[in-house]
Design goal:
By secondary structure, the chain is of the alpha+beta class. It has a domain of 189 residues: tricorn interacting facor f3 domain (Immunoglobulin-like, Sandwich). The protein has nine helices and 23 strands.
């Protein structure tokens, strides 16, 4: 999900180019800076229920039960009111959940990532179909909600939750919370985790992302306590309406993220059907425009290579985070990259922005288990960087040296986050060896079969949670060559 490695959650939360001018439709807005600074968070470590992680089992993707009234298993209606100065958010959340699992559910399990910070998540009332539920269990990032009447296959219910978030201070390794430039809301609402014979929720590890999502529809209304503050919001979709309240909708997505700041400048451009906005700080206008231009090229390139996606907008958000991190329709990009922009095409600013853009396909459209099979989005997004340079800058041949060979990577591509060891070892195996695997696969089966496979994989698995079995199943539809050699070279588990 990020540069060479996924977001690192310390302790348990463990979690170029010559500037090109954007199109004439680019717009710029400015607001004054805010210099409020607070202390870093205290993070506590807890187990997540009785779940243990030794050798995680892999789950095949499932075809949801069809119901014309529900395009996704869940719809999230979120109403949030932010006190920007006090770093406090009050939320009313209503989840309309449809049981498409094919099994009777005696309980619901929700992921509550904000509970991993001491004192952040304060649960108020929780009701199901209007009836109060008081016997919930919240441990770590897992909230167990027993049902007085089990939910039968095809049945539906409504979960209403009122809660407050006392946001933690975010350091360079944590996007969630506030810093002296912005407030970032990622995985900020409880969500019902997927069910595949059991509830699919994983504890954090030393490396990588641990969350797994079903697709869902979102309706978000957001306001600030003091409407006179010149707050600008970056979000996973464009606002339907503004004024004192921002209103957003997003369909068939895994996440909804927001970033608020009085410090943003912004520039916007339309690429095909996707409105793209770059949010940056005043002194970083030039690299902010470079990012916008290069991302617009990446969107066109990947749309041609991978096929269409559901997003209507994309927000690029500069942040004092150490790397890049993607969510549906929005990604964060390290402020260090903006500061180190050297005016060449092959640098961290452009390359990692391209990587995060590719995640609109590999993570956003095609989901996966980020904990157990992270290569399915990270290796794909990393190799997508190479495809971007190949298609847009064919005279630049140094991507492999810059991005992969310089680290002399080794390890199994299908390493999960619980066996990833340290940052460098995990990144080398999943991201960089993953890119080598895809390059070797392309060479083995040829360009025609490779690109037909990639587009077919993107199409077949859109809106679903892909597995390695899906990847190789669809691959074999496009090539009858023996894949055992390449699998044995790069994978510890054969498919």
């Amino acid at each position: 999900m990020q540069r060479c490695s996924p977001a690192i959650f310390f302790l348990l939360l463990t979690v170029s180019c010559n500037p090109l001018s954007p199109a004439s439709s680019t717009t710029i807005s400015t607001v004054p800076e805010n210099t409020n600074i607070s202390q870093a968070p205290t993070i506590f470590a807890t187990a997540t229920g009785t779940q243990t992680v030794t050798e995680p089992s892999l789950h095949p993707s499932e075809t949801p039960v069809s119901n014309p009234e529900f395009s996704t298993p869940a719809q999230y209606n979120l109403t949030g009111k932010l006190d920007y100065i006090s770093h406090n958010l009050v939320v009313d959340e209503v989840i309309s959940y449809h049981n498409a699992t094919g099994e009777t559910l005696p309980e619901l399990v929700l992921a509550v990532e904000s509970n991993l910070w001491v004192g952040c998540f304060q649960l108020g009332n929780l009701t199901i179909d209007g009836h109060a539920v008081t016997n919930t269990t919240l441990l770590g990032n897992r909230l167990d909600v027993p049902l007085s009447v089990p939910l039968i296959p095809g049945g539906s219910l409504s979960v209403s939750i009122q809660y407050t978030l006392n946001l933690p201070a975010a350091d360079s390794h944590h996007v969630f919370g506030f810093n002296n430039l912005q407030i970032n809301l990622v995985d900020w609402y409880p969500f019902i985790v997927p069910f595949t014979g059991g509830w699919l929720i994983h504890p954090p590890a030393n490396v990588g992302e641990n969350l797994v999502y079903d697709t869902a529809d979102y309706d978000v209304q957001f306001s600030v306590v003091d409407p006179t503050l010149p707050i600008i919001l970056a979000a996973s979709s464009s606002p339907v309406s503004t004024g004192d309240t921002w209103h957003y909708t997003l369909h068939s997505a895994h996440t909804f993220a927001l970033s608020a700041s009085p410090n943003y400048q912004s520039a916007a451009i339309n690429t095909g059907k996707i409105d793209t906005t770059s949010y940056f700080f005043r002194e970083d206008k030039t690299p902010g425009l470079v990012v916008l231009s290069e991302v617009s090229k990446a969107l066109s390139t990947f749309g041609n290579l991978f096929g269409p996606i559901q997003y209507k907008s994309l927000s690029i958000v500069e942040s004092p985070f150490y790397d890049g991190l993607e969510y549906d329709g929005l990604f964060f990009l390290s402020r260090d990259f903006y500061k180190r922009d050297d005016g060449t095409v092959l640098n961290d600013l452009v390359d990692i922005a391209v990587h995060e853009t590719a995640h609109l396909w590999w993570f956003g459209s095609v989901g996966n288990d980020q904990a157990l099979e992270p290569w399915l989005d990270e290796a794909m997004a990393t190799y997508s960087e190479q495809l971007f340079y190949e298609k847009n800058y064919p005279l630049i041949s140094a991507w492999w040296s810059f991005r992969v060979d310089a680290y002399d990577p080794s390890g199994w591509v299908d390493t999960d986050i619980y066996h990833g060891k340290d940052f460098r070892s995990y990144a080398n195996a999943v991201y960089l060896q993953g890119a080598r695997f895809l390059g070797a696969l392309r060479k083995l089966i040829g360009d025609e079969a490779f690109f037909a496979f990639i587009k077919d994989y993107s199409s077949q698995m859109a809106g679903r949670r892909a597995t390695a079995d899906d990847f190789f199943r669809i691959l074999r539809l496009h090539s009858t060559l023996d894949l055992s050699g390449i699998q044995q070279t790069y994978f510890q588990r054969l498919h």
